[in-house]
C-alpha cells in the first residue's frame, strides 16, 4: 500500500482496516467507472490504468501474452520496458525534422492530456475518500447502539430458559403417566383384536372373505405363538387354528371342485401358500386342475376334427385353439409363475413338463387338423391360420423362455408348408392329366381327321397357356407363405430352404419332370398295347415339350426365382438339365409319333400285299385303292404335322420330280436288271449287280431319330411305310400281272410321295427296290410299258 | 473263335431257311435251304471246323420248290423237313415234307469235290406232311430232343401234330389245334418248348403270341399285342423253362416270362430293321 498512489491520503492507524476496505470499495467503483469511460476513450490508456490496478492487486499473472510481447519493445512508449534514450535515438535516427517536429507536438499533446486526466482522477479519488470517512464515522455511532440492544436480548433469553426448565420439571411426571397409559391402550386394543379374532375369522368364513381371514390370522399368528404358554392365549390360538384349518379345508375344497375360474384358483393358491401349505403339493394340484380344464379345451378341439367336408374351416379351428387353449395356457403359466415365484427352481421344472405335455397334445391335434386340409382351393386361409397359430405361440415363448414349444410350433408350420407344396404338386399333376384328357376328348370328337388336326394348334396353345396359368396361380398361392406380414416368413427356413428346396425343386422342377416323364410314358406303354394314344396327341405333346425346352422352362424358373428371391444354398437342378430332359422327351415323342403313323400305314400296305393272290391277278387297269388311301393318309398327316412343326429343309428338287427320275428308274436301270435276271447262265450277276448297287447307295436307317420339322417327320413315316411294303413284297411270289400291278402302284406312290420328303431320291430308291424285288420274285417277269403305267396312273 | 476272322459262306441263291443239325454230335453242321423261282433249289450242308476256322460244304438238290423253312431231325442226322413253295399251273402252293439225305453224300463229295456243284445228289422224299384239309404250311417243328417220331406243322390257322411211322415214310395226324377268331388268321411262326416234357408249344400269329398244351391241344396263355407289328419268330431259353424271346417287325426283341405275360421282362431296341429270326440261349441272330 503505497501512499504515492493516493497522493492526498493521510490515514490514521486505528482506521487502517476500515480505510483499506473503503478504499477497495472505492477502487472497485472507480474501475467500473473507468470501464464506462474507456468505451469512448483511448484503449491504450485504459490498459495502463488497468495495469496499475493490477499491480496493486497482484494480478500480474493474468496479463495477456500479447501484452507481454508488446511490452518487451523498448520503443513502445506505453510498455513497461520503455527506454527513453533508446526511443529518442531511434526517432532521431529515423525521422526527418518535420516528422520530429510533428512527433514532438503530438507527444506534448499527449502529455498534456495525460496530466489533465491524472488531475481529474486524483480529484475524484479525494472526493470519494472524504465521503467514505463520513460513512465510517456514522457507522461507528450505530454500532454502539446495537451493542446495548444485544445485551438486553441475552438477559431476556436467560430468563426464558429459566422459566422453561421450571415448566418441564413440573410436567415430567404427568408425561410419563400419559405414555404408559397410551402403551396400555395399544396393548389392550391388540388383546381385544386377539380375543375377537376367532369370531372375526368365523364371520369372514361365513362371508367367504378368505383373503381377509388369512390376513388377520397372519397378523395374530406370531403373537399367539409367542404367548401360547398362557392358557387364555392358548385357547385363542387353538380356536384360530381350528377355524383356519376349516378355512384351509374349505379352500382346498374349492380348489378341488375346479369349477372356479383361473383367477379364483390363483387366489386360492395364493391364500393356501400363505397358510404354509407345502408348495410342491400345491404346484401339482394347481397344475392338475389347470390340466383338467385345458384338457377339456383340447377335447372340444378334438371334437372339431371331422372328415373334411363337414369340419369347420381350418382358420376357425386354429382360432378356437388359440382363443381357448393357448390363451388359457398362457394364463395358467402367468398365474403359476406369479404364485410360485419363491419356489422358482422346483416350480419351473414342473411347469415345463406340464406345458410340454399339453402343447404336444395340442400340436398333435393341430397337425391332424392340418392334414385334413386337402383342398388346395384357397391357400390364404391356411396360411393365415398357421400365422395365427404361430403368432399365438410367441406369447408362450415370451412367458416361458427356453421352452421347446415355439420351435415345435415352427416345425409344424414347416411340415404343413411342405405338405402343402406336395399337395400343390399333386394338384398340378392331376390338372395336367385332366387337361390331357380334355385334349384327348377334343381330338376324339367325331370329325374328319383333317378337321381334327386343324384344332391341334389351338389345343396346344390353350393347353400350354392353361398349364402356365395354373403354375402361376400355384406359385402365387405358395408365395403367401413368404409374405411379409406373416410372422413365420422371416424364419430362416422360409427364407432359404422353403424357397429353393420346397418351391423350386419339389414343386416347379418336379412338375416339369413329371410333364416330361408322363409324356415319355405315352411312348412306352401305348405303343405296344394297341396304341390307345391318338397319334395327334403324341405330336402335340412333342411340340409342348419342345416349347418347354426352348422357352417355357427357363421362363417358369426365372419367374420362380424372382418371386421367391431364391438364394441357392444347396445345389439345385439347373435349367439346362431340365431342358435336356424336355428335349429328350420331345424327341422320343416325335420318334414315337413317326413310328405309330408309320405302322398304321405299314399295316395297310402289309395287309394289301399279304391278302392278294399275286400270281393269278388280272392285268392292271387301275391303281389299287389302298395306294390312294396311303397317299390320302400321308397328306392328312402332312397337314397335321404342318400345324405344329415348321417346314424344315429339303434337298433341291429336280424340275419335274414326279416324272423324270421315275422314268429313269423305270426304263433304263430297271430294264438292265431284268435283262440280267432273264439270262439263266448268269444267276450270280443279278446278286452282284444289286449288291454293287447297294454298296453305292446310302444305307437307309429306317427307324432313325427324326428332327423337329415337318419334312423330317414325313420322311420318317414314309421310310417306314415303304420299307414294310418292300419286305412284304419279298415274301410273296408274283405272276406277270402281279408285277405290273406293283409297277403301277409304285409309280403312283412316286407321283405323290416325293413332295413330302427331304430327299426324293430316298423314295425313288425304296420304290425302285420294291419293283426290283417283286421282279425278282416274279415267275414271269414281263414289265409293263412305262407309257401305259403313266396313263393308268394319271387316269386314276 | 472270337479272335479269328469271321467265316463267310456265299450262296448262289437267296436263302431264308437255316437250321443247326442237332443230331450230328461230332461236327458243327448247319443246313441252309435256298429260294429260287427259276432254278432247282438246293440244300447246303455246311460243316464248320472250329479248329482250323474253315468250312466245308455239300450241296443236295431240292427240286420240289423254294424252301421257306427247314428243320433237322433231332434223332436221325439224315432226316430233315422243309416247307416249300410249289409252283404249278400258275398256282403257288405251300407244302411241307420229310426228306432223307442220300446215304453217300459225304463220300461223294470227298471223292470228287469238283462234281458236287455240277451234279448234286437229290433228296429222297420220305413223306408229305399235307392232307387235303390243311395246306399252306408255314413251318415244321421237330420234337426237341425227341426220337424223331413227332413233328408239328403249322398250316394256316391249324397246328397239326404228326406221328411219323415206318422210318418216317408215313405220317398221320394224331391231333390238331385250330386258331379261331375274326378274319383270316394265320400262324407266322412257332417253337416247341424243350421244357415240361416237351408238352408245350408257342405260336405267333399277327401280333399275338400264344402258348398251347400239346396233351390237350388247348391254349394255355396268350400275349395280345406282344409286338407293335407282326411277330416274326420266337424261341425258348434252353436253360430257364419259363423264359421266351420274341422278335418282330417293330425292330424289338422282347423277353417274356410266360407265367406273367402282362409286361415283357425286357425289351431290346437295338436293331434298326425287321427281326425275322431269334434264337434262345443268349444268342439272337438277325437274318436279313
TrEMBL record, chain A:
Keywords: Coiled coil, Endosome, Golgi apparatus, Lipid transport, Protein transport, Transport. Its main location: Golgi. GO terms for cellular component: cytosol; EARP complex; GARP complex; membrane. One of its GO terms (biological process) is endocytic recycling. The keyword Protein transport applies. It is found in: Golgi apparatus, trans-Golgi network; Recycling endosome. The keyword Lipid metabolism does not apply. Involved in retrograde transport from early and late endosomes to the late Golgi. The GARP complex is required for the maintenance of protein retrieval from endosomes to the TGN, acid hydrolase sorting, lysosome function, endosomal cholesterol traffic and autophagy. Acts as component of the EARP complex that is involved in endocytic recycling. Belongs to the VPS51 family. Component of the Golgi-associated retrograde protein (GARP) complex. Component of the endosome-associated retrograde protein (EARP) complex. This is Vacuolar protein sorting-associated protein 51 homolog. The gene is vps51.
From TrEMBL, chain B:
Residues 7-280 form the EIPR1-like beta-propeller domain. WD repeats lie at residues 224-266. Keywords: Repeat, WD repeat. It comes from the Eukaryota. InterPro entries: Beta-prop_EIPR1-like, EIPR1, WD40/YVTN_repeat-like_dom_sf, WD40_repeat_CS, WD40_repeat_dom_sf, WD40_rpt. GO terms for biological process: protein ubiquitination. Pfam families: Beta-prop_EIPR1. The keyword Ribonucleoprotein does not apply. Belongs to the WD repeat EIPR1 family. PANTHER family: EARP AND GARP COMPLEX-INTERACTING PROTEIN 1, WD-REPEAT PROTEIN. This is EIPR1-like beta-propeller domain-containing protein. The lineage of its organism: Eukaryota, Metazoa, Chordata, Craniata, Vertebrata.
Amino acid at each position: 500500500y503505497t501512499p504515492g498512489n493516493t497522493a492526498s491520503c493521510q490515514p490514521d492507524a486505528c482506521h487502517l482496516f476500515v480505510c483499506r476496505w473503503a478504499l477497495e470499495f472505492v477502487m472497485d467503483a472507480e474501475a467500473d467507472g473507468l470501464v464506462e469511460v474507456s468505451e469512448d476513450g483511448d484503449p491504450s490508456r485504459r490498459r495502463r490504468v488497468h495495469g496499475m490496478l493490477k499491480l496493486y492487486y497482484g494480478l500480474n499473472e493474468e496479463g495477456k501474452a500479447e501484452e507481454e510481447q508488446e511490452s518487451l519493445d523498448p520503443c513502445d512508449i506505453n510498455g513497461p520496458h520503455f527506454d527513453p534514450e533508446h526511443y529518442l535515438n531511434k526517432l532521431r535516427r529515423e525521422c526527418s525534422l518535420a516528422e520530429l517536429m510533428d512527433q514532438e507536438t503530438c507527444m506534448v499533446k499527449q502529455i498534456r492530456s495525460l496530466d489533465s486526466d491524472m488531475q481529474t482522477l486524483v480529484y475524484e479519488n479525494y472526493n470519494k475518500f472524504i465521503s467514505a470517512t463520513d460513512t465510517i464515522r456514522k457507522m461507528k455511532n450505530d454500532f454502539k447502539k446495537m451493542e446495548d440492544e444485544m445485551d438486553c436480548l441475552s438477559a431476556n433469553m436467560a430468563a426464558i430458559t429459566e422459566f422453561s426448565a421450571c415448566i418441564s420439571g413440573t410436567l415430567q411426571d404427568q408425561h410419563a403417566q400419559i405414555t404408559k397409559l397410551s402403551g396400555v391402550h395399544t396393548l389392550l386394543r391388540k388383546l381385544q383384536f386377539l380375543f375377537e379374532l376367532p369370531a372375526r375369522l368365523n364371520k369372514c368364513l361365513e362371508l367367504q372373505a378368505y383373503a381377509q381371514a388369512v390376513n388377520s390370522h397372519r397378523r395374530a399368528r406370531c403373537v399367539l405363538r409367542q404367548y401360547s404358554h398362557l392358557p387364555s392365549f392358548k385357547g385363542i390360538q387353538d380356536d384360530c387354528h381350528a377355524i383356519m384349518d376349516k378355512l384351509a379345508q374349505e379352500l382346498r375344497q374349492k380348489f378341488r371342485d375346479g369349477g372356479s375360474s383361473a383367477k379364483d384358483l390363483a387366489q386360492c393358491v395364493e391364500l393356501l401358500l400363505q397358510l404354509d401349505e407345502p408348495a410342491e403339493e400345491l404346484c401339482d394340484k394347481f397344475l392338475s386342475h389347470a390340466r383338467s380344464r385345458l384338457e377339456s379345451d383340447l377335447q372340444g378341439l378334438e371334437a372339431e376334427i371331422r372328415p373334411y367336408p363337414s369340419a369347420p374351416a381350418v382358420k376357425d379351428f386354429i382360432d378356437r385353439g388359440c382363443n381357448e387353449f393357448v390363451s388359457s395356457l398362457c394364463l395358467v403359466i402367468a398365474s403359476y409363475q406369479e404364485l410360485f415365484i419363491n419356489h422358482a427352481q422346483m416350480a419351473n421344472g414342473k411347469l415345463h413338463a406340464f406345458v410340454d405335455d399339453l402343447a404336444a397334445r395340442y400340436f398333435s391335434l393341430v397337425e391332424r387338423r392340418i392334414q385334413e386340409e386337402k383342398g388346395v382351393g384357397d391357400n390364404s386361409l391356411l396360411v393365415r391360420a398357421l400365422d395365427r397359430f404361430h403368432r399365438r405361440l410367441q406369447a408362450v415363448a415370451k412367458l416361458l423362455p427356453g421352452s421347446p414349444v415355439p420351435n415345435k410350433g415352427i416345425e409344424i408350420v414347416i411340415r404343413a408348408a411342405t405338405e402343402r407344396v406336395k399337395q400343390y404338386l399333386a394338384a398340378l399333376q392331376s390338372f395336367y392329366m385332366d387337361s390331357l384328357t380334355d385334349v384327348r376328348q377334343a381330338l376324339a370328337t367325331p370329325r374328319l381327321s383333317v378337321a381334327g388336326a386343324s384344332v391341334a394348334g389351338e389345343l396346344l396353345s390353350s393347353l400350354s397357356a392353361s398349364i402356365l396359368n395354373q403354375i402361376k396361380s400355384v406359385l402365387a398361392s405358395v408365395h403367401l407363405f413368404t409374405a411379409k406380414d406373416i410372422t413365420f416368413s422371416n424364419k430362416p427356413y422360409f427364407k432359404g430352404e422353403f424357397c429353393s428346396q420346397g418351391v423350386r425343386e419339389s414343386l416347379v422342377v418336379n412338375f416339369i419332370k413329371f410333364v416330361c416323364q408322363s409324356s415319355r410314358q405315352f411312348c412306352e406303354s401305348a405303343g405296344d398295347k394297341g396304341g390307345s394314344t391318338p397319334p395327334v396327341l403324341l405330336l402335340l405333346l412333342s411340340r409342348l415339350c419342345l416349347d418347354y425346352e426352348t422357352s417355357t422352362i427357363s421362363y417358369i424358373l426365372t419367374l420362380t426365382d424372382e418371386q421367391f428371391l431364391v438364394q441357392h444354398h444347396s445345389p439345385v437342378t439347373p435349367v439346362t438339365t431340365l431342358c435336356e430332359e424336355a428335349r429328350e422327351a420331345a424327341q422320343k415323342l416325335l420318334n414315337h409319333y413317326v413310328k405309330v403313323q408309320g405302322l398304321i400305314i405299314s399295316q395297310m400296305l402289309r395287309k394289301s400285299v399279304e391278302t392278294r393272290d399275286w400270281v393269278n391277278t388280272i392285268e392292271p387297269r387301275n391303281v389299287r385303292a389302298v395306294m390312294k388311301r396311303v397317299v390320302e393318309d400321308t397328306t392328312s398327316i402332312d397337314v397335321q404335322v404342318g400345324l405344329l412343326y415348321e417346314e424344315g429343309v429339303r434337298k433341291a428338287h429336280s424340275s419335274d420330280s414326279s416324272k423324270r427320275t421315275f422314268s429313269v428308274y423305270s426304263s433304263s436301270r430297271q430294264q438292265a436288271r431284268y435283262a440280267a435276271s432273264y439270262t439263266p447262265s448268269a444267276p450270280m450277276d443279278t446278286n452282284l449287280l444289286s449288291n454293287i448297287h447297294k454298296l453305292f447307295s446310302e444305307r437307309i436307317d429306317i427307324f432313325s431319330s427324326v428332327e423337329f420339322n415337318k419334312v423330317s417327320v414325313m420322311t420318317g413315316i414314309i421310310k417306314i411305310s415303304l420299307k414294310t411294303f418292300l419286305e412284304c413284297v419279298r415274301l410273296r411270289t408274283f405272276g406277270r400281272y402281279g408285277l405290273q400291278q406293283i409297277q403301277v402302284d409304285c409309280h403312283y406312290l412316286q407321283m405323290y410321295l416325293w413332295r413330302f420328303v427331304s430327299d426324293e431320291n430316298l423314295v425313288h430308291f425304296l420304290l425302285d427296290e420294291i419293283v426290283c424285288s417283286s421282279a425278282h420274285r416274279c415267275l414271269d417277269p414281263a414289265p409293263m410299258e412305262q407309257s401305259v403305267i403313266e396313263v393308268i396312273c394319271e387316269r386314276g | 473263335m472270337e479272335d479269328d476272322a469271321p467265316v463267310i459262306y456265299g450262296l448262289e441263291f437267296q436263302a431264308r431257311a437255316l437250321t443247326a443239325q442237332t443230331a450230328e454230335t461230332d461236327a458243327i453242321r448247319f443246313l441252309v435251304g435256298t429260294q429260287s423261282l427259276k432254278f432247282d433249289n438246293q440244300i447246303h450242308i455246311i460243316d464248320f471246323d472250329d479248329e482250323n476256322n474253315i468250312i466245308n460244304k455239300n450241296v443236295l438238290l431240292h427240286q420240289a420248290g423254294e424252301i421257306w423253312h427247314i428243320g433237322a431231325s433231332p434223332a436221325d442226322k439224315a432226316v430233315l423237313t422243309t416247307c416249300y413253295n410249289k409252283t404249278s399251273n400258275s398256282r403257288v402252293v405251300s407244302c411241307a415234307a420229310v426228306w432223307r439225305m442220300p446215304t453217300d453224300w459225304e463220300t461223294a463229295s470227298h471223292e470228287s469235290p469238283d462234281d458236287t456243284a455240277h451234279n448234286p445228289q437229290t433228296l429222297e422224299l420220305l413223306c408229305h406232311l399235307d392232307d387235303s384239309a390243311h395246306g399252306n404250311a408255314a413251318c415244321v417243328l421237330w420234337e426237341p430232343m425227341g426220337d424223331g417220331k413227332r413233328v408239328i406243322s403249322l398250316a394256316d390257322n391249324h397246328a397239326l401234330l404228326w406221328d411219323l411211322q415206318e422210318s418216317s415214310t408215313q405220317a398221320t395226324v394224331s391231333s390238331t389245334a385250330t386258331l379261331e377268331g375274326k378274319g383270316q388268321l394265320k400262324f407266322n411262326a412257332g417253337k416247341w418248348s424243350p421244357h415240361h416234357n416237351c408238352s408245350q408249344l408257342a405260336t405267333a400269329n399277327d401280333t399275338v403270341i400264344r402258348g398251347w398244351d400239346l396233351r390237350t391241344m388247348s391254349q394255355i396263355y396268350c400275349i395280345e399285342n406282344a409286338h407293335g407289328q407282326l411277330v416274326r419268330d420266337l424261341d425258348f431259353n434252353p436253360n430257364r423253362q419259363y423264359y421266351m424271346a420274341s422278335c418282330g417287325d417293330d425292330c424289338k426283341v422282347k423277353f417274356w416270362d410266360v407265367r406273367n405275360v402282362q409286361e415283357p421282362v425286357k425289351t431290346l431296341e437295338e436293331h434298326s430293321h425287321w427281326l425275322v429270326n431269334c434264337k434262345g440261349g443268349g444268342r439272337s441272330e438277325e437274318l436279313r
